[in-house]
Specification:
- The chain has 378 residues and is an alpha/beta fold.
- It folds into two domains: 2-47 and 147-216 and 310-374, FAD/NAD(P)-binding domain (3-Layer(bba) Sandwich), CATH 3.50.50; 87-141 and 218-307, D-Amino Acid Oxidase, Chain A, domain 2.
- The protein has eleven helices and 22 strands.
- The protein has helices at residues 13-22, 56-70, 96-106, 118-124, 147-160, 203-209, 276-289, 338-349, 356-359, 365-368, 371-374; strands spanning 2-3, 6-9, 28-31, 48-49, 82-84, 87-91, 114-116, 135-139, 143-145, 164-166, 173-177, 180-184, 189-192, 194-197, 218-227, 240-243, 249-253, 256-260, 265-266, 297-307, 314-317, 324-328.
- Strands 6, 7, 8, 15, 16, 17, 18, 19 and 20 form a nine-stranded mixed β-sheet that branches. A six-stranded mixed β-sheet has the order 10-3-2-14-22-21, with helices on both faces.
- Helix 1 (13-22) packs parallel to helix 5 (147-160) and helix 2 crosses helix 8 (338-349).
- The longest helix has 15 residues, at 56-70.
- The chain is globular, with a radius of gyration of 21 Å.
- The two termini are 35 Å apart.
- The mean pLDDT is 94.
């Protein structure tokens, strides 16, 4: 029996950030079911640091993560975690109200958003179709995120503090016994007073192993394709381009174009694969907005983004049993909020309440607690 202070189930960005923040307070064991950490959602993310999310809570967690991403601790990463990118939210003539709403909900942020016209948008991304783009909002401080460097930095930090990361360690038994949790995999057993459920799409199933009620998390498939730009276009200086109605996005990626139909197809937890219909939708929607003929798709993939019913993260101790902490439902914002989310997780696990910087943003424990779902009859 290997004994720790904290067992983290799940080695994606959620589990890694939680383990990193907890590692200075005790011994951490991260148990990852796959042979490779970040195999599912984390490793398939096309992450963009943006404060455009419609939920105030997510915007707050995003901005609270920025200082860490800009200035990570010494030795955290050998490369910068953020790369200049910018984000351009475009709208058809019938979508101008949505652009106005984006400006209104971000007007109080120091993180700037600017309303621009069609000509200015085309100056940034010349392939945009003038008849489609009636206006846009530009977020100059949006950045590309080096997801692998961020994820590995968290994992190295866990190990540097004496913690351990176990791969191929699917939890098959999880039970409370003698004031501690016992977690058993195919080959090893672990014990700790606290278990953090950072299982992503599998988080409800992990709760079921512990004989706890779910919070009704829903994994959603997101499809991504990579293709060559036309010979006449040079995308290297373009910002990411996002439809204000969340129907597609595209951005430069290592000399190619990365694109998605921004699909959200409900799925069971699985190793997600790109669907041909979603690929066709991506091509069709992007061709309507931009002169970007797709002659050959060089790569395609899909990942799962997992949401709670209210689309806010689920962070807190389960009200029905001692020592079981939920850290799930981070949807499509888990990477760019990871620094603040990890800090939040550690503070609540240790019983210290909401960190002052996050409380100042209007966040509360009750707003994120799994108790908001557990109080309802099942």
């Amino acid at each position: 029996m290997d004994t720790y202070d904290f067992i983290v189930v799940g080695g994606g960005i959620a589990g890694a950030s939680a383990g990193f923040a907890l590692a200075e307070h005790g011994a951490v064991a991260v148990l990852e079911r796959e042979e490779q950490v970040g195999y599912h959602a984390t490793g398939r993310s096309a992450a963009l640091f943006t404060a455009a999310n419609s939920a105030l809570t997510v915007r707050g967690l995003t901005l609270a993560s920025k200082d860490f991403l800009v200035n990570p601790p010494a030795g955290f990463s050998g490369t910068p975690l953020l790369q200049p990118r910018g984000a351009l939210f475009i709208g058809r003539p019938d979508q101008q109200g949505l652009l106005d709403e984006l400006i209104a909900r971000t007007s109080a942020l120091a993180h700037a958003f600017h309303r621009i016209d069609t000509a200015q948008a085309k100056a940034m991304v010349p392939v945009l179709r003038e008849e489609y783009v009636a206006g846009a909002v530009y977020e100059p401080h949006s950045m590309g995120i080096e997801v692998h460097a961020l994820h590995q930095g968290f994992l190295r930090g866990i190990k540097r503090h004496g913690g351990a990361v176990f791969t191929g360690a699917e939890v098959r038994l999880l039970k409370r016994e003698s004031r501690r949790w016992l977690a058993r995999t195919a080959t090893r057993s672990f014990a700790a007073p606290v278990v953090i459920n950072a299982g992503g799409a599998w988080a409800d199933r992990i709760a079921a192993i512990a004989e706890l009620r779910p919070v009704n998390l829903q994994p959603m498939r997101r499809t991504v394709v990579l293709f060559d730009p036309p010979p006449t276009a040079d995308p290297r200086g373009w910002p990411a381009v996002l439809d204000i109605g969340e129907q597609f996005y595209f951005k430069p990626e290592s000399g190619k174009i990365l694109a998605s139909p921004a699909d959200e197809t409900p799925m069971e937890p699985c190793d997600a694969y790109a669907d041909e219909l979603d690929i066709a939708l991506a091509i069709d929607r992007i061709n309507a907005a931009a002169d970007l003929p797709v002659r050959h798709i060089t790569k395609r993939w899909a990942g799962l983004r997992t949401f709670a019913p209210d689309r806010l993260p689920v962070v807190g101790y389960d009200p029905e049993v001692e020592g079981f902490f939920w850290f799930a439902g981070q949807g499509g914002f888990g990477i760019h909020t990871s620094a603040a989310m990890g800090r939040l997780c550690a503070s609540l696990v240790l019983g210290r309440g909401m960190p002052s910087g996050l409380a100042a943003l209007g966040l509360s424990e009750a707003q994120l607690s799994p108790a908001r779902f557990k109080s309802r009859p099942q």
